[in-house]
From TrEMBL:
Residues reported to bind AMP: K416, D417, A418, V419, T420, G445
Family statement: Belongs to the NnrD/CARKD family. In the N-terminal section; belongs to the NnrE/AIBP family.
Gene name of the record: nnrD
CDD domains for this protein: YXKO-related
Provenance organism: Lacrimispora xylanolytica
Domain YjeF C-terminal, first and last residues per copy: 222-505
Entry keyword Lyase: yes
Protein name per its UniProtKB record: Bifunctional NAD(P)H-hydrate repair enzyme
Residue ranges annotated for the YjeF N-terminal domain, each copy included: 10-213
Leader sequence segment: none
Catalysis performed (reactions): (6S)-NADHX + ADP = AMP + phosphate + NADH + H(+); (6R)-NADHX = (6S)-NADHX; (6S)-NADPHX + ADP = AMP + phosphate + NADPH + H(+); (6R)-NADPHX = (6S)-NADPHX
The enzyme's E.C. designation: 4.2.1.136, 5.1.99.6
One Pfam family from the record: YjeF_N
Textual note on the cofactor: Binds 1 potassium ion per subunit.
Length: 507
């Protein structure tokens, strides 16, 4: 597990480290600059021309320190100062004084250094960026973009990227490598910022563990090795020890959704999986997944005899210890009753997806039945329908959108996008770092519901199950892409890779 921070949280950690712990600001800055220099030395040799663009806050202070360290090592270096002495931070002024005394080559914008630039260091704005970039700063950035440096190394975060949302604040500078300090910022984890950051190196610049006490760390991601969070299956057990997953899924022509969800639940470790679906899906599901129990209903009877249908649903819910509700259910009128009955009768975790969410969007009063056991897993289009916002508005701040929906109902909201967000009911927010665009295919979401259900069946509670499920799903996608490339992934192949990842847990 790796903590992630907002810009303000990072500033708090800086402040606490400097003021309460007593590590001087310039010491942190020196270590930050050394970390950047070490990346630069791995990228270019001393024949290269290096330009460092320095703003006049502490990000710029880092930049001047980088220029000084490279100058002392004999690199051909120019520092471009974007601000004036009057507006420079204390540390920036200290760095400038040192740089001037030891003869670092400096120019003041609008002047630019002569010759060409092989490696560009972006130290214009860090976590202090708090508004749109306009005027002179915009001009500077546009000029840099027209120069088209061969390699760009960003200091802490690419300038112009908002450290909390990853949004471009007017203009931003694209980096090949971003060296960030202490903790990765949300802005380099989220698109478009993630696309501007290149390879992100998290440098340890000496923040002691106590510094985290300055904030309540609430954003996190998983990384390899975290498979150990998945509960082991004890040796002395039977199929009932691992939970009974009820997959309420699959309407007309949509048996595949039920199949993929049930298969993924089994592959993740569930002991028993029952699919509750329409009668016409029986044969195909029974032959496709003979391991699953199949229970069926007739959609016309469900429509005509509501009381019997409700009774049938009640029995299914009593059997289950985890429920997946929604994949491929369709949008016929009885689906509303179905969703309502499950929500009112089940006292177990429910993963609500696809047409289950569609029913909620069409009948918002159903949210009145939400309990803390609910995990909703909308993609952006479904989220837009659920909230009445536009996809564009949600995209501007995925974390805020997911968090707001989860908090409104006290549930867990997994908002699926290129970077999936898990706004967990325990107030932590998971930002996914696995997965790839090959997974943007039909059936991928059905597999995710099954994986989460499988983890809950193993005994994880909703918050951990949702976060680990998203991560595991992405890891499976990465494993499939490695074998089959970016185009040919099939959702069923995700379920085939789950075992390779689960094996890491016991190694
Ligand atoms: N000791 C420490 O704390 C350490 C800090 N470290 C480094 O410091 C960085 C944070 O430094 P920082 O807080 O000084 O802010 P920074 O990102 O340099 O921005 C400068 C100023 O720009 C301004 N501004 C904002 N938006 C603007 C806009 N659109 N257009 C124009 N101006 C705008 C805004 O000032 P304002 O105008 O709002 O008063 C802001 O304060 C951090 O990312 C890391 O690299 C490391 O060395 C480790 C130790
Ligand atoms: K920067």
């Amino acid at each position: 597990m790796r903590n992630l921070v907002t810009g303000d949280q990072m500033k708090e950690v800086d402040r606490y480290t400097i003021e309460t712990i007593g590590i001087p600001s310039l010491v942190l800055m020196e270590r930050a600059a050394l970390a950047v220099v070490s990346e630069i030395e791995a990228l270019v040799n001393k024949k290269s021309n290096i330009w460092v663009l320095c703003g006049n806050g502490n990000n710029g202070g880092d930049g001047i320190a980088v220029a000084r360290l490279l100058h002392l090592k004999g690199y051909k270096i120019w520092a471009i100062l974007a601000g004036t002495r009057e507006s420079g931070s204390r540390e920036w002024l200290a760095q400038l004084d040192i740089a001037e005394k030891i003869g670092v080559q400096l120019v003041n914008f609008p002047e630019f250094p002569p010759g060409e630039c092989n490696l560009f260091v972006d130290a214009l704005f860090g976590v202090g960026l708090n508004r749109e970039v306009l005027g002179t700063y915009k001009e500077i950035m546009e000029k840099v973009i027209t120069y088209g440096p061969e390699i760009t190394v960003a200091v802490d975060i690419p300038s112009g990227i908002h450290s909390d949302s990853g949004q471009i604040m007017g203009t931003a500078l694209r980096a090949d490598v971003t060296v960030t300090f202490g903790f990765e910022k949300l802005g380099t984890m989220l698109y478009p910022g993630k696309g501007y950051s290149g390879r992100v190196v998290v440098a340890d610049i000496g923040f002691p563990a106590q510094s985290l006490s300055a904030i309540r760390p609430s954003f996190f991601t998983f990384e390899s090795g975290d498979t150990k969070e998945i509960p082991l299956r004890p040796a002395y057990s039977n199929k009932g020890s691992f939970g009974k997953v009820l997959v309420v899924a699959g309407g007309r022509n949509m048996s595949g959704a039920a199949y993929l969800s049930a298969l993924a639940a089994y592959r993740t470790g569930a002991g028993l999986v029952k699919i509750f679906t329409i009668e016409e899906n029986r044969t195909i599901l029974q032959s496709g997944l003979p391991e699953a129990i199949i229970a069926t209903y007739d959609p016309e009877e469900a429509e005509a005899d509501t009381a019997s249908f409700k009774e049938l649903l009640k029995k299914q819910c009593e059997w289950a210890s985890v429920i997946v509700l929604g994949p491929g259910l369709g949008r016929e009128p009885y689906v509303k009753n179905l969703v309502e009955e499950v929500l009112t009768n089940a006292y177990v975790p429910i993963i609500l997806d696809a047409d289950g969410l569609g029913a909620i969007a069409d009948h918002p009063d159903l949210t009145g039945y939400f309990t803390e056991n609910i995990i909703v897993t909308p993609h952006l289009g479904e989220m837009a329908r659920l909230t009445g916002s536009s996809v564009e508005a949600i995209k501007k701040n995925l974390i805020a959108a997911a968090r707001e929906y989860a908090d409104r109902f006290g549930i867990t909201c997994v908002l699926k996008d290129a970077v999936t967000i898990g706004a967990l009911k325990d107030q932590r927010t998971y930002v996914n770092s696995s997965g790839n665009s090959a997974m943007a295919k039909a059936g991928s979401g059905d597999v995710l519901t099954g994986i989460i259900a499988g983890l809950l069946a193993l005994g994880l509670e909703e918050s951990d199950g949702a976060a680990l499920g998203v991560w595991l799903h992405g890891r499976a996608g990465d494993a499939v892409r490695e074998k089959y490339g970016s185009y040919s992934l099939l959702a069923s192949q995700l379920t085939e890779e789950i075992y390779t990842i689960l094996q890491e847990q016991t190694r």
